[in-house]
Amino acid sequence: MEKKSNVNNLEKIVSFCKRKGFVFQSSDIYGGIGGFYDFGPLGVELKNNIKKSWWKRMVQERSDIFGLDSSIIMNPKIWEASGHTSNFTDPLVECKKCHKRFRSDHLKNIKECPECKGELIPPRQFNLMFKTFVGPVEDNASIAFLRPETAQGIFINYKNIIDTQRVKLPFGVAQIGKSFRNEITPGNFIFRTREFEQMEMEYFVKPGEDEKMFDYFVEERLKWYTDDIGIKKENLRIRKHEEDELAHYAKSCVDVEYNFPHLGWSEIEGIANRTDFDLKQHEKFSGIDLKYFEEDTKNKFIPYVIEPSCGVERTMLAVLCDAYEEIEGGRTTTTEKTKEIEIILKINKKIAPLEIAIIPLVKNKEEITKKAKDVYRLLKKEFICQYDEIGTVGRRYRRQDEIGTPFAITIDFETLTSEDVTVRDRDTMEQKRVKILDLINYFKNNL
Fold first, then answer.
1. 255 and 185, same structural domain?
2. What is the pLDDT at residue 166?
3. How far apart are CA 383 and CA 357, in angstroms?
4. For residue 330, what pLDDT is reported?
5. What is the pLDDT of residues 171-230, one digit of tens each?
6. Is the omega angle on the peptide bond into residue 170 within 30 degrees of 0, that is, cis?
C-alpha cells in the first residue's frame, strides 16, 4: 500500500456511479434528458438508507414530530399564497447566436455567451415551477403545478395535525417526497437536478421561542451528518445568510455546506426561521382560521416555524465523495507489487447499500456452494446481502470493498465440519471465525 487519496474530480465520481450501478442518466438509450437521473440497484439502497436514517432521527426517536405524505399536485392557489407564483424565479438570459440559455447570476459576463461568445439578451425572470393540467381540458381553469417544495404540503395540513393528533406547541411535521424545479441550467451531476427528493421538517413554536429552537436545530442537524451517516466533520461547515440573500419569508437562515471536490463549499441543507409568514398567508388566502389556541393563557396566535430542509440526492453525493478512497498499489497482503489502484468506499455501516457479501471459497465444490447459499438465505431475511462466487476470493473482496460492503463472509472447507465462517471487516481487513448460528446477532451488534 503506497498512498491514499480521495476523489478529486466530478468525472471520476460520475463514472464510478454508472459503472457500479449507483446512478444512471435518465432515458440513457434515447440520448438522455437534462437534469433527470435514475438510481440503480446500489443507488436506490443508499438513498433509502439515507431517508430511513433521517426519518429515524427526526420522527421515530421523537415524540414531538409527526410524519406526513402530502400530494405532489395541489390547489394552485397554494402557490399564489406562498409567493411561488410571483417570487419563485431565476434571471434568464439567452444567446442571440446559439440560442442557449443560462442563469445570469451564474455568469461572470452577462453580455457575452460563455459557449460561443455571442451576444446575450437582457435578463428576464423565469418561473421555475413545472406547469401541468388537471382534467381532460387544457385551459386556464385546469392549470396546476408540480410542487417545487414539500413544505407547503405541511403548512396546509397544519390544522389537520392539530385536530387529529391533539398536539401542543412546540411540535413538528416531517415528510420526505419528490419536488420539481425547472432549472435553467441543471448540472454538477445529481447536485442540481429538475426532479429531486427533499427531507423537510416544519417545527411550530411560540413566537419568542423561535431563536432558541433555531439554534437547537442547527446543532441537531450537524450531529446527524457526522454521527448518523458518517460524514467527516472537517468537510462540513455552517454558513449564515447575509441580509441581502435571505428569502422573503425568512427571519434568519443558515446553510449546512459540504466541501465538494469539484464545487468547493456548497449547500446540502438549509435551516430557516420562516416566522409566521406561511400560515398567515394561507389563513388570508383560504379564509380558514389557522391560529393556535393556547389553553393555559387562552391566547390565540400564529406560530413561528423553524425549517430544516435537505436534499436526498445532494446528501447522497456528499456521502459518496466523502467515502471514496483510492489506494495506489492496493491493500495486498502478499509481497507481490502491483500498480493497480484499489477503490474503497468507506460508507458508514449504518447506510451502506449492501451490508454483507457471502463468498464461497470455491464455486466448483457443491458442498461449499450449498452451505454458502444456506447462509445467504439465513441472513437475507434480516440484512441486505449479495451472494458472490465469480473470480478469486481476493478479487471478490476488492469488488465488495469498492461498493462499500462492510462485511464479507467466506465459507470454506472448515465450515463443513465446524459450522463457523470467516467474517472480514471492510475497513480493518481483520478476519474472525463466527458460528453460523451466531451470525444474525453478530451483525445486529456490528451494523
1. yes
2. 85
3. 10
4. 67
5. 999 999 999 999 988 889 999 999 999 999 999 999 999 999 999 999 999 999 999 999
6. yes
Same domain, 154 and 283: yes
Half-sphere exposure of 252 (CA within 13 A, CB side): 13
Ranges of beta strands (E only) in 232-291 are 236-240, 252-260, 264-275
Beta strands in 338-419 (DSSP E): 341-345, 356-360, 385-387, 407-411
pTM for the full predicted model = 0.91
Contact 202, 155 (CB under 8 A): yes
**Of all residues in the chain, what percent are helix, strand and coil, respectively (each to 5)?**
35, 30, 35
| pLDDT for position 3 | 45
User: How far is the CA of 7 from the CAs of 10, 265, 399, in angstroms?
Assistant: 8, 15, 18
User: What residue numbers bound the domain in which 380 lies?
Assistant: 354-446
The dihedrals phi and psi of 14, each to the nearest 5 degrees, come to: -60, -45
Determine the Cα–Cα distance for residues 269 and 159; give it in Å rounded to an integer. 27
pLDDT tens for 63-73 read: 999 999 999 99
Q: Over the stretch 117-147, which tens digit does the pLDDT of each residue have?
A: 999 999 888 888 999 999 988 877 889 999 9
Q: How confident is the model at residue 408 (pLDDT cuts 50, 70, 90)?
A: very high
Q: Give the count of alpha carbons within 13 A of 177, CB side only.
A: 20
CB 191 within 8 A of CB 176: no
What are the CA-CA distances from residue 376 to residues 360, 402, 410, 425 (Å)? Answer: 10, 20, 11, 17
* Judgement on whether residues 52 and 163 belong to the same structural domain of the protein: yes
Predicted local distance difference test score (pLDDT) of residue 332: 54
- What span, in angstroms and rounded, lies between the C-alpha atoms of 140 and 273? 35
Tally of residues, the chain: 447
Q: Dump strand ranges (E) for 312-362.
A: 324-328, 341-345, 356-360
262 in a domain, yes or no? yes
Give the DSSP letter string of 23-53. EEETTGGGT--TT-EEE-HHHHHHHHHHHHH
Instruction: Count structural domains, the chain.
Output: 2
Alpha carbon of residue 160 to chain centroid: 28
On the question of pLDDT at 38 being above 70, the answer is yes
